[in-house]
Task: inverse folding
DNA sequence: CAGGCGTGGGT
DNA sequence: TACCCAAGCCT
């Protein structure tokens, strides 16, 4: 096995010099702020999260503040961040935190993991970043860095493997686990990127197994590419945008005009309703859930 | 476990 | 210009 400090020390040093000043990383950020940021950052770039997160923290500074609102308001103020079911789940987190945890974001991994929208990554991230606990924080950035640095692969497997988890756990320092986690993530986000890694700027290029092997091209199974144009997802997005922008009941005719295919439109609308993102009212109109 | 789930910026 | 893909989760 490799010597963990060969990777840790240069990455931690690099982080000291290159960490972005993100509001949810500041010392005055609350656990709630960290939790909100983590949900918003799922599959979503930092630059798009920043303004929405800031507005949410002003509007709903505590879980109790959000829990007191309707879920529809959470969806409305999600704006165009994407994957709006996350807004519903965050609202569900707030309600569970108030109902079951005295209004305080839990600090325990297992408890966090039981909240809506919080999976393995987010539970580990919140426990680490909000409470300084020691967990393997395996997001797409960390997985890519470790695939390269340790396994000499350009990309990690499609699904997280036990081997990856073993590698990540072996690298956790006995002290400062949370700082280590955010440092590796930051390296993946800023330097060891998916498309065009900036190896020239990398603090571990001399120790990276993939770099040392001559950066061999990825030869594993094809990675899933996503289509969007013409899909139900796009249709749902169009419909929900109308509901978000209108305050109150939206006549069906106002939804009909944003998507031509009526079969697909009906299916998408039914999907939004069954997901809890929309409500049908009497008189053939719709709105965000109250 | 593979597929569904938004959106917009970088290359 | 067309992809590629960005701090995943749920079913």
Result:
């Amino acid at each position: 096995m490799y010597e963990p400090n060969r990777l840790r020390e240069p990455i931690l040093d690099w982080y000291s010099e290159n960490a972005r000043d993100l509001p949810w990383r500041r010392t005055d950020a609350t656990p709630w702020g960290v939790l909100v940021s983590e949900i918003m950052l799922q599959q979503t770039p930092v630059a798009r999260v920043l303004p929405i997160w800031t507005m949410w923290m002003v509007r709903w500074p505590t879980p109790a503040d959000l829990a007191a609102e309707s879920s529809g308001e959470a969806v409305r103020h999600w704006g165009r961040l994407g994957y709006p079911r996350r807004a519903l789940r965050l609202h569900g987190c707030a309600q569970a935190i108030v109902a079951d945890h005295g209004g305080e974001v839990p600090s325990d991994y297992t408890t966090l993991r039981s909240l809506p929208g919080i999976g393995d990554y987010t539970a580990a991230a919140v426990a680490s970043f909000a409470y300084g606990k020691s967990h393997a924080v395996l997001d797409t950035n960390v997985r890519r860095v470790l695939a390269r640095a340790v396994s000499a692969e350009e990309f990690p497997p499609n699904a997280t493997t036990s081997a990856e988890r073993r590698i990540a756990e072996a690298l956790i320092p006995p002290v400062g686990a949370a700082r280590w986690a955010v440092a590796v993530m930051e390296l993946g986000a800023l330097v060891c990127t998916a498309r065009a890694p900036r190896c020239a700027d990398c603090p571990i290029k001399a120790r990276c197994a993939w770099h040392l092997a001559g950066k061999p091209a990825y030869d594993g199974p094809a990675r899933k590419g996503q289509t969007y144009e013409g899909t139900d997802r796009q249709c749902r997005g169009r419909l929900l945008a109308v509901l978000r922008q209108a305050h109150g009941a939206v006549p069906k005719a106002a939804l009909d005009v944003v998507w031509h295919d009526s079969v697909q439109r009906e299916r998408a609308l039914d999907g939004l309703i069954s997901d809890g993102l929309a409500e049908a009212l009497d008189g053939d109109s719709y709105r965000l859930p109250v």
